[in-house]
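Regression test case RT-17, inverse folding.

Input:
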């Protein structure tokens, strides 16, 4: 069975059990400070489990693209070395939100694996939670009972597992519960008869592996560590799709399934290294096939490689692939980018975002590869130097600090450093390196760690209603609050029953303002969304949080922000009209002061084009188009209205469409009532930020006036200086031309004066035996001119020793030039001479036998130094 059919079968199976089949959420997570990438199917439902949102259906199923390379789940180092962990993988899952529980979850899992797919019972194992006295959680007898109905015998088929393996928690606090895993034994009969499978479950055996985890969410973990029963119980399951494919297709490795074959074959074709011939090649082929998927999918979801946060994680995955190619497959040229078309045609059916962004992905990967291969080259050179330095000192251990610096600053991986050291019979101080790594991790954890207390519930309430589209003031009640500590500072998180405060999302910054009751006033310094919960951040906790408050948004800032948000839509529209419909939004930032818009486009727009874009956007401003919002319509309807959905964005069942004339966008942000409020849009910068992605920045309204005035004032000042207010460019051009003419004249003059200086010096030449000794003190303002003069004198004949000095800026300078023949036949060396005489000017010098110079603190000693030089020659 092909992978595609298998995925379909899963959907159909759970569809027949009343599940709504939904899309995978983007792999890159936005709006969750605790998570960079989706690492399990349940992530997108976190807000439902936390009770912040209602599900669209209480039974859903899907295939979720996951990435496990950071934080709690990090499988990166396993990938490629084993055959069943990936960085990016698909997780099939079915969910019950307060609907069915353990019975159905277990029975259906069994029916699907054993009944539908025909995986034989004797190859399957189930685990259940053994219980934990400290948490006061009993053994999961309920799950045991249902498994008992599936297996024909229970002995050694249903196994008990500890808290580590069989108790799932969302985080330090929050929903949690026991889980039941299904493991499968795919070993050959001969091996199975030697060691029974149950002895290998959860022991890291590559062919006795977990494929499905059924989590039964029934508790809530509080900040003090205790558990409380949840009112509604949920099911959350996750099954590795690639592993399931391996089992169903009768393979021993995920990489042998049709999911990976096309890409692996293409790598073999390009590199000439076949899969299955050599262990080191196989590892590299697996690493590359895996990492290519992870990187391509994240770029398609809008996360480009970069040097911080999520972008840096992606960059490191990509570099790992390049490095394995470089080390094991001898690829010294970029080649990963050439694999993208094969990947896109293999996975584009299920994931159209990959097809849509194919070219861009390829270009970005190419740039990254090229840059990293250069870094590798540089790093190799640096290590080469370190090694020779160590050898000179008779040492054979490279300090961890240096390896860490190579890794951290130059992206040069430690294992490669180690490999090179080994080839030179040297070692890395690994403990030192680990120490540095740990320090860095600690630093970044401390920077980001948020220490949150339990929510203090004041009154029960449903979702916070956002009233800020219509008003900037409202009467609100605090429903819950908690104290949090960030970087040693205390804040208070407040949640209201309803709120006019816009929470940061969709690129628009959060509102600020204050809340005020009869007794007190509390500043709101920011508003954010966490798992769909609108959180108002205050510097302190209100003394009486039960009071009725008036919530007041800083309306000036809000208006400026809304101007910029609407302007962003108009610019987007104008960009598409001028540059073409391939232009897509790749990111945006809307603040009160300016707007930033990232978009896909492959070449630099010319000046004319930028002017045209600005002109179109400003025309829409002057048309004073009214805001036209349609809320709560299905995505399909929004498409029909002309709105474009973005890949990598998560949309709910129903969406909001914001229209200003012909500009139509899916948008949850705040906007002005008509475009005239923007006044004017001024683009202030435009440039590339990655392959195929450009960034434009603009200002509007009063900020645009300020910007324009600043420029005008500068021009006025120049005009005044030029005394020609009409044509400034011409005036400046004239000045520049004059300047360059003067420069040329000056150079000529200097050359002439140098010539006459040389002539004067030559006149004073003394002949010492057959050597012409030319010396003197000249006036000049640069050591370079002094050198040039000495050099010129040296050219006049082949028996010259020239010693000239000058006092420049109160310091002594001496240059000695010696003809080549004198150096060769008489052994006269300018360096030796300069060392001899430099003491006279309180300084030191050096150079080469034919030209040397010295500088010193004592200009009064120049004459004496020259005298000494003459004596030197006399003695030769
Ligand atoms: P393992 O112990 O094998 O790493 P896990 O306990 O981390 O698995 P879960 O977090 O329970 O796995 O995830 C659910 C399912 O997702 C697993 O049963 C497995 O089939 C699959 N899975 C987990 N991690 C990976 C991975 N890195 N690559 C591919 N599939 C995975
Ligand atoms: Mg794992």
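Golden output:
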């Amino acid at each position: 069975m092909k992978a595609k059919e298998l995925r379909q079968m899963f959907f159909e199976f759970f569809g027949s059990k009343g599940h709504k089949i939904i899309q995978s959420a983007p792999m890159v997570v936005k709006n969750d400070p605790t998570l960079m990438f989706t690492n399990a199917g349940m992530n997108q439902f976190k807000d439902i489990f936390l009770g912040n949102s209602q599900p669209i259906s209480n039974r859903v199923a899907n295939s979720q693209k996951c990435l496990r390379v950071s934080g709690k789940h990090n499988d990166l180092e396993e990938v490629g070395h084993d055959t069943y962990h990936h960085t990016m993988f698909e997780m099939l899952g079915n969910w019950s939100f307060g609907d069915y529980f353990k019975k159905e979850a277990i029975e259906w899992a069994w029916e699907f694996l054993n009944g539908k797919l025909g995986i034989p019972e004797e190859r399957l194992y189930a685990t259940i939670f053994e219980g934990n006295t400290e948490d006061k959680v009993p053994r999961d007898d309920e799950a045991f009972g249902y498994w008992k109905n599936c297996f024909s015998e229970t002995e050694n088929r249903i196994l008990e597992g500890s808290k580590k393996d069989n108790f799932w928690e969302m985080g330090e606090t929050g929903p949690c519960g026991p889980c039941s895993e299904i493991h499968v034994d795919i070993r050959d009969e001969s091996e199975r008869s030697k060691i029974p499978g149950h002895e290998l479950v959860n022991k890291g055996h590559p062919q006795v592996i977990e494929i499905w985890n059924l989590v039964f969410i029934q508790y809530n973990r509080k900040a003090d560590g205790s558990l409380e029963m949840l009112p509604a119980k949920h099911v959350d399951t996750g099954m590795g799709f690639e592993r399931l494919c391996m089992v169903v297709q009768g393979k021993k490795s995920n990489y042998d399934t049709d999911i990976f074959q096309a890409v692996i074959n293409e790598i073999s074709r390009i590199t000439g290294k076949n899969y299955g011939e050599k262990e080191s090649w196989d590892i590299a082929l697996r690493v590359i096939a895996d990492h290519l998927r992870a990187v391509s999918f994240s770029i398609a979801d809008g996360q480009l490689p970069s040097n911080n946060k999520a972008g840096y994680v992606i960059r490191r995955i990509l570099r790992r692939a390049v490095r394995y190619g470089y080390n094991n497959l001898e690829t010294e040229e970029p080649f990963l980018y050439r694999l993208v078309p094969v990947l896109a045609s293999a996975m584009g059916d299920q994931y159209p975002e990959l097809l849509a962004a194919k070219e861009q992905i390829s270009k970005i990967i190419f740039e990254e590869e090229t840059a990293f291969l250069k870094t590798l080259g540089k790093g190799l050179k640096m290590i080469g130097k370190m090694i020779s330095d160590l050898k000179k000192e008779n040492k054979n251990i490279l300090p961890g600090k240096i390896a860490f610096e190579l890794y951290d600053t130059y992206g040069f991986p430690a294992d490669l450093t180690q490999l090179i050291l080994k080839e030179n019979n040297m070692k890395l101080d690994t403990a030192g390196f680990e120490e540095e790594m740990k320090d860095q991790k600690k630093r970044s954890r401390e920077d980001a760690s948020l220490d949150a207390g339990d929510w203090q519930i004041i009154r029960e309430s449903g979702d916070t209603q956002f009233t800020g589209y219509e008003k900037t003031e409202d009467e609100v009640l605090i429903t819950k609050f908690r104290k949090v500590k960030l970087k040693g500072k205390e804040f208070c998180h407040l949640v209201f029953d309803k709120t006019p405060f816009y929470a940061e999302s969709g690129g628009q910054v959060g509102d600020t303002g204050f809340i005020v009751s009869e007794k007190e006033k509390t500043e709101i310094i920011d508003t954010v969304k966490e798992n769909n919960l609108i959180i108002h951040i205050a510097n302190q906790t209100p003394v009486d949080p039960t009071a009725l408050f008036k919530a007041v948004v800083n309306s000036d800032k809000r208006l400026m922000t809304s101007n910029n948000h609407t302007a962003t839509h108009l610019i987007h529209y104008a960009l598409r009209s001028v540059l073409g419909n391939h232009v897509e939004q790749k990111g945006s930032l809307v603040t009160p002061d300016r707007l930033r818009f990232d978009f896909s486009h492959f070449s630099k727009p010319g000046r004319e084009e930028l002017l045209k874009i600005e002109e179109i956007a400003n025309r829409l401003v002057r048309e004073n188009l009214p805001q036209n919002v349609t809320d709560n319509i299905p995505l399909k309807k929004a498409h029909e209205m002309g709105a474009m959905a973005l890949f990598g964005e998560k949309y709910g069942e129903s969406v909001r469409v914001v229209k200003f004339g012909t500009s139509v966008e899916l948008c949850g942000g705040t906007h002005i009532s008509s475009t005239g409020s923007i006044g004017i849009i001024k683009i202030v910068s435009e440039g590339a930020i990655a392959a195929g992605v450009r960034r434009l920045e603009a200002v509007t309204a009063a900020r645009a006036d300020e910007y324009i005035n600043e420029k005008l004032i500068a021009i006025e000042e120049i005009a005044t200086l030029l005394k020609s207010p009409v044509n400034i460019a011409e005036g400046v051009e004239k000045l520049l031309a004059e300047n360059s003419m003067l420069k040329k004249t000056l150079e000529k003059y200097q050359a002439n004066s140098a010539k006459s200086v040389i002539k004067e010096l030559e006149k004073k030449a003394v002949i010492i035996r057959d050597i012409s000794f030319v010396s003197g003190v000249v006036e000049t303002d640069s050591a370079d001119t002094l050198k040039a003069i000495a050099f010129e004198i040296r050219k006049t004949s082949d028996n010259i020793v020239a010693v000239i000095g000058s006092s420049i800026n109160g310091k002594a300078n001496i240059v000695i030039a010696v003809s080549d023949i004198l150096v060769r036949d008489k052994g006269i060396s300018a360096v030796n001479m300069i060392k001899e005489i430099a003491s006279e000017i309180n300084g030191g010098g050096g150079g080469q036998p034919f030209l040397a110079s010295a500088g010193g603190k004592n200009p009064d000693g120049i004459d004496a130094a020259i005298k000494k030089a003459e004596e030197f020659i006399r003695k030769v």
